[in-house]
Every structure is written in C-alpha cells, then in structure tokens.
C-alpha cells in the first residue's frame, strides 16, 4: 500500500465508506495518516463505585446482580441493569442496544466505562462501553485517540482505518537531514506518525507532535527559502538609477532624513540598480516616515521611463498619498494618477486608457490596482502600504501585474518575530527604527467618562493654540447606520461644548466617498479643527498639525488598533496627547489600557498584546489562510517555528537540494505556498 493510494484500498472501507471519509477531506491513505486526533482518552484503573463523581467519565469493575431489564422510553429501547462492587451499586443504561439483554448475564463481571450522570437523587452510568478484564488491561494507561468525525463514522472505525494505514502503508525514507533531527532532538518521522495516533505515553505523544509540527514549519520555511531564492534570482530587467529629479526631490524635503530612512534609501537604491529584482519590506513604527521612501522609489521608476504604483488599504489613505505625490512630482514632470473605487465606470475606463498608454507614470489606488482591466506599461515597481492589511496573495497579485517587477512593502505593525517569518519570510527587511528627532513622545492618559468636560476644555485650548484634534466616537457593533448616527450626535454635542468659533465636523463610513474626501481634505488643510470620526482614520492618515487624539470606549479596541489610532498624532514637532476614555471597570480592560499608557513603542505593545490575548487574531494581523497549518499553531508553537526556520536557513546547499528533491515528490503540507 502506498500513501498516495485511495482510502478504499484499506480493508473495511468500500465505495460508500470512502464517500464518508471524503467528507472529512480524507481521500488517500496519506490524508488518513494526517487526520490527527483532536484529543486522547486515557483508560485508568477502575474506580470503586462509591467514589464515582457526577459528570466525569469513569471505569468500574463490577458484577451484574440482576437480569437486565428492557423498557421503552419515547420510542427508544432502553436496556438497564444494576451492577455492584465491594463499595456499592449503580445502575447502567443503554439506548437502542436491545441485544445487550443477552450479553448482560447475572453473575458475570465486566469493566464498564462511561459517563456518570445524575438521575433524580442517584447517580447512573450512561451508555457505558463493556470490556472484559483482559481487553481493558491492554488499554490501561494508553492514550486512545479521539478523532474529528462526521455522521456515519465512529471513532472506532477511524481508529481501525488509521491503524491499518500505519501498519501497511510504506513510509518513505526520512527526508530530514540527521544533523537537524539531532540538533532539534526530533524523533523519526515514521515513529512520529505511530505515536501521534497511538501514543505509548503522554511524553511520546508530545514528542510526536513536536516532530510533526516541526515538519510542517520546516517544509514551509524551505519553500519560503526557495521562493526567496527564485525571486532573488530573477534577473533585473528594470535597472533603475538615480536621476536628477530624485536628487531634487530629496533636496526639497523640509527635514533631514533619519539614519533609518537614509539606510533604507540606500538599500532600495542598491536593490533596484542591482542584478536582481527587489523584494523589500520596510518596517517602521507609525510615524517613522515610511511614505517618503515609497515616494522616492516611485520617482526612481517614473524618471527611468517606467511606471510604478502604490496600493493602500483605504481610499482615504490612497487619496492622501495621491495629493502629496501630485504636489511633489508635478514640478518634476512626473504624472500621478489616482485610481479610486468610487470613480464612475466612464472615469475608470478613461483611467485604464491613460495607464495603458503610459500617459501617467505613478498610479495610486486601493484594490482597484489589481483589477483585471488594469493593464500597465513598463510596470517596474509595486508598493503596498500597510501590508498587514493585505494578504500575501494580494501582494503577489499586484506584482503579477507586470514582469520582473520590483516589490516594496511597507508595514507599521510590529508583529512578533514568528509571525514575521510566516508573513514576510521571503522578503529582505529594512528596519526604520527611530522616529524623526524633533518628535516629542506622545503623552497618554487613561480616564473615565467623568473626565469628558476636562478633555473638551483641553481640546479647546489646543485648538486656540492652532492645533487640531481627532475624537474617535464610541464603537457600535450593530451597524454602520447606528454608528453614523452616533458620530452625528456626538458632533452636535461637541459643537455645544466647544467655543462657537471651533469648526467641528464628522467623518464616518456611511458617507459618500466624495464627502469623506472633502472632509478629510478640509481637516488636512486645517479648516476643520476637530474631526469626530469612526475608525476610518485609523490607517496611515497623516495630518501633522493634529495634536490630540481622544478615543471613546477605548477598552473595546484591540491594542494594535489603539496604537494605530494614537499614531495619527505625534506626527509633527508639537507635543501631542492621547486620551483613552474608558467606561469599563473590568480589570482585564484596565490592564490592557495601562499597556497603552505605559508605552508608545509598537514592538513592546505587540509583545504585550500577544501575552494578554494569547493565540488568535493577535495584533490585528488577519487570521488568513496564510497562518493555517494542519497541526502546528504559530502562536503556541512559536519556539518550534523559530527553530524550524533557523534549521531551514542553516541547510547547506547539498542538504537543501536533497530536501527539495523529496518535497518535490510529496504534496505541499502547507497549501498556500
Ligand atoms: P508612517 O511611517 O507612519 O507612514 P509618514 O511617512 O506618514 O509615517 O510620516 C509621518 C510624518 O512625518 C509626515 O508628516 C512626514 O512628512 C514626516 N516626516 C517623515 N520623515 C521625517 C523626518 N526625517 N523628519 C521630520 N519629519 C519627517
Ligand atoms: Mg504610512
């Protein structure tokens, strides 16, 4: 039997049962071996009847004291009988197993194992399984696998099928270099499969699990390495060199670049002029100044006779990028265009034409950029801003819009290292560590709702000093409708609280894109002084003159989102403030907000978020298919992931090729790579 054979080559699995297995996505023997138990049951020594407790599963060794009785209840045949040991008696019941009447003979002894439940004032055992002493002894203290099942398939049938697959299927030679197995203290692959299904003990089960999880991560990491190497071997067909326009652009900046920005620029410059295509991630906390790096790269492409585009997660942000670049590039003779989702079909058609005919050099947009109808001309560079908002797939789709395209990815969200391996493992990384020098650290406070009047007075004072403020409205889950209403009401109320001269306006998701843009632009130009908003302003938006961020219902947000929201202020030379308003007395909520209070450092917050929330949608990184493995969990098994990644990187050329050769023959464990 081969692992690639269909399941029905296993004895006892016919066409019909095979269909049932197919419902669990088990088509081949290999699939069956990879159908891991979701839990294990342990058969312990029998408990004296007198010591049974309600609710648990237990085994008793007892004798049958009277003939079994058969009755009918609600159309079910119920067999019941009393059993006894030295400590007491208990009643056992079974449903729809009439044949048991002939099995349960008075005077015989068995081991009964089942759930103990309360019926009236007494305990009974429901549906116990019946074992002869010998049968039970074999199972004693052995972990019994409990499988994910589907209708028509019992756990027992699954166990039998897996058992056969294990014994009869051939296991290929272990592909993992011995050195790596030794260094990571891993058992053999074959042993791991036996032990994950039918472990001898808890320890061996854990060892098996570690090996299988390691394999999943290791093969993933090897494929990443392969992808990275292939991409990095992609010859550079668009060698871009610094032009006069690029130098003029840099000279015209009203500030000095930070060391991190300078280094990143150098790396970008070297990448795009080098022998191979660029694949680079710029990682820097909110406000570290990533946009200017994207602008420089786009300018490089444009002034070398190519096109470049930048994809942002929201239209508000795309429009902002557009405005800034339009202003900066126009004087340099570079045409910038916005491809917005809100454009009319006619406008879009015209836009597609202008792109295809290379009337524009730099295209700014959202998902609109990857639509089928968009055909670029000499597309040399794609940039994704706020990459954590997109999937790896979207990044690749954008790159797929051209050939030999340089890829630049920007992300503010500091994520735990393990996540970075999975999401960005195939990219070179530039870290922009420091914030621009003149920035003052944001001052934070966490307050309750009674503080509101004080906060409003504070905002009024800041406005009178020429600053601006954001107020993020209470979060409403039910609907955008209610949310819009909320924002509108809050805005009206705030107008009443603040001096009449202060311009307060609302911004929410229900507004027409054109209205949203208009509000955002008026806020950016300083005409609107206080913007009452939902989280539509969360990502990327840049209004350096804003100095106050007040967040209502702060406890309802994740730390990542709070960090992003706070990142809207502290973007200029002025002292900025973030006011977290919380109505919650919940200790957990308070603890989370105190993290925000303590630190402005995204990496620290990411780490705390991981600790507080545990596995799950940590730090706002979407739980996409990219993070799914069969058994491994990138959070719980973070250490194994890091070890597997290190191992994959440590492979010598020879080892690497051997591993690849084996992987080539087997299906990918991780489907998205
Ligand atoms: P982010 O990294 O969050 O995308 P931005 O690129 O939007 O940050 O930059 C935030 C603000 O900082 C912008 O107003 C930008 O002009 C400004 N900025 C960028 N680099 C510097 C610098 N080296 N010195 C001072 N201000 C800078
Ligand atoms: Mg940004």
Walkthrough of the structure:
The protein is about 40% helix and about 20% strand. With about 675 residues, it is α/β, with parallel strands linked by helices. Among the domains are: about 45-140, OB fold (Dihydrolipoamide Acetyltransferase, E2P) (Beta Barrel), CATH 2.40.50; about 245-430, P-loop containing nucleotide triphosphate hydrolases (Rossmann fold, 3-Layer(aba) Sandwich); about 445-600, Rossmann fold. It has a 7-stranded parallel beta sheet, with helices on both faces. A 6-stranded parallel beta sheet has the order 16-21-20-17-19-18, sandwiched between helices. The longest helix is centred in the N-terminal third of the chain and has 31 residues, at about 200-230. The structure holds adenosine-5'-diphosphate and magnesium ion. Magnesium ion (MG) binds near residues 290 and 540.
